[in-house]
């Protein structure tokens, strides 16, 4: 049995009086940390790259590393060495703290490295070429020691210039938006568009070296008096790098109404740079990525394949991107006719689906395009420049988040223009209108009837995209010459899979983060354990394969998967109400991240990363009346009228943030700190309440399960990070824990009346039994395991363990304990992990036995489930592949979490 030890934070003040009388004032420092734990084992930590190849051509990588409580204090410095013992420059900062003030997570940024790296306490090596930031002038100038990037402080030019040495490689970096004000079907209407440019509102230097610098730029796209589509950019720079990374986020704030042709339809969304060109046309080069590391490799003025041969050495040099000898040394039959060889100035690669791209070029505007090739899935990489320097550029997840496009214009002139289109202007306009007209569901009664047939919770005006967001990642290299094919291949690889340094699973388990004891290394030491591990592998592989077979790709869709399968159509129910997109239902995010934490597998990390990028942005509102709420599963990610905390749950973002120190995900978590205020705006129970209820800031009805788990996760994270509102957040964590514990029936009470001013639940006078099968399956168990580990509040622990003990108990046991049973419940297999947790905490062997009984023999997947796929082909399916018609995403998430947690907690007590 794997015990889950608990460190003390708070001395049990409840001992001084009834829990209901125990109060935490907002921001109070009465909650003192217990004495610092003794220094835990501070062995060096071996960091490794998720994939082979190390950093490659990427500018740098940042990794989060956890530490056991008490190991290191806030002022601890860290050093990094490679496999040969050579010092590697590293920049370190704290990500989170334990309640005793010791470091819980630290971030470490590196700008070099290829193999395993060893992290120890010590003095870090300084980089030979430091990142520096100069704020003194009209721009913010960032130098990596190799390139210098001048960032604007106002206006529409985000990046004024990119120079390498004395050579300007790129300039006038800006954001472009093409709006189409009307959309009609087929050949109706007239297509008109208008262009908006990104305009800067604020610029913030978030880090300034010596290894890593980060500059944030916020603004809106503007034309005339109108500003819309807010953007947030982060530019990342690393010491000694010839490149930089851009993380680009837009938040949709336009108007699109179902049934109306007029609206704010995005026709194109992109990032554009100008590239000065100094070389002769035959010494200018274009490179555009195709499939894999494939490239179109051409010169603006090609001298290969001509009727006359300039010489083999000249041709080979041009193909290699090298400077050609003086034309006077060529065969003069070519030299004397150079003026008759076309200059190809414009190139476009369009990826309008996940299954095909086309490439074309032309000499210049006003002249016809010719096909230059095509393929299935382009890498999203390009280059334009010459032997004296040029710009490489790439858009990550290029084909996965179609429709995307790369444009090069004017390569035959003194200044080329490069545009990376996040939404291709050659695609259909971005149509985010709700997909049906309501079908007469005007009243709550009618909407509940609709729910009973399609599982969709519809309400007029609720299916709006206003406030959803999307984040994209781009890379740029300032090259001093046209890169060699080998270097280009490395750049392509960095665009496709951004190198990521990672802490090993053993360190994550040792540090007791993300729910101590809830996950452990995969173990196949017995037949029973091996069989469960096989099942876990099967489920992950199946979902990964289904993403490909079902083409779950696209700008707004990539990262998510479907909820339920239609066995008749041999198709996931993509068009049936609440059975379509999953939107984090029952915490598949936690299942996938736990699967990564215990295994360190790169493929699981990448799958979970895409899910986190999606669910944290697209399934959640970031501005507007529902900011801080997410949307329940449905045909469109924003379509369902159930706007709730459970989908915006910060728990789902914590993993990626702490493992990578990603600032954008950090923004999302901080934005949820005041999400308790959303209960003033929208009552999640409005359609099913039987009595009158008006939201009152001093008496908000909030559930202890799906609601509170989302709120407390945001508060805990802000507290751990010591964010701007950490004292308020800490007070909210403690006061809600205390007042849930003080309820007559604890968690079984179901909900309470919450006071926004004090952050406390009113303690009910009368015990109530109100238990839902959903309460604990949106991260409650994992959060409570963390909180019990962190906070010494015995009454809270007792209340939660009681909930764990009785959910899967018999009705007679429930009634004996609470006076009535819990009614009809579901999801017993998923709740077996609560049995397992309580068994370890209490040492109850009967609970341990019940955990495995419910895991193996209740609902969900069983050992008699097929645990295999069946082949599918035409005419039964659109695309040949396979199906496991017995699989559902709810059961997968619950089985995955129960299997992982039960194995870790009770792996030595299996039947």
How does this structure look, described?
The protein is built from 20 helices and 36 strands. By secondary structure, it is α+β, with helices and mostly antiparallel strands. The strands form seven sheets. The chain has a 20-stranded antiparallel sheet that branches.
The major sheet is characterized as: 20 strands, antiparallel
Helix content: 25-40%
Helical segment count: 20
Report the end-to-end length measured between terminal Cα atoms: 13 Å
Residues in β-strands, percent: 25-35%
Unreliable segments of 5+ consecutive residues? 1-38
Overall mean pLDDT stands at: 94
Secondary-structure map:
Layout: E1 45-49, E2 61-66, E3 78-81, E4 91-97, E5 103-110, E6 117-121, E7 132-134, E8 139-143, E9 147-152, E10 159-164, E11 167-182, E12 194-208, E13 212-223, E14 226-238, E15 243-251, E16 262-276, E17 284-289, E18 295-299, H1 312-320, H2 332-335, E19 346-353, E20 356-362, E21 370-375, E22 381-386, E23 389-395, E24 404-409, E25 415-423, H3 444-454, E26 469-479, H4 485-496, E27 501-502, H5 505-511, H6 527-549, E28 565-566, E29 571-572, H7 588-599, H8 602-617, E30 630-631, E31 643-644, H9 645-648, H10 651-660, H11 663-671, H12 678-681, E32 700-703, H13 706-721, H14 726-741, E33 751-755, E34 760-761, H15 780-790, H16 794-807, H17 811-818, H18 828-842, H19 845-857, E35 870-872, E36 881-883, H20 889-906
Antiparallel strand pairs: 1-6, 1-27, 2-5, 3-6, 4-5, 7-8, 8-9, 9-10, 10-11, 11-12, 11-16, 12-13, 13-14, 14-15, 15-26, 16-25, 17-18, 17-22, 19-20, 19-24, 20-21, 22-23, 23-26, 24-25, 28-29, 30-31, 32-33, 33-34, 35-36
Helix pairs in contact: 5-7, 6-20, 7-8, 7-20, 10-11, 13-14, 14-16, 16-18, 18-19, 18-20, 19-20
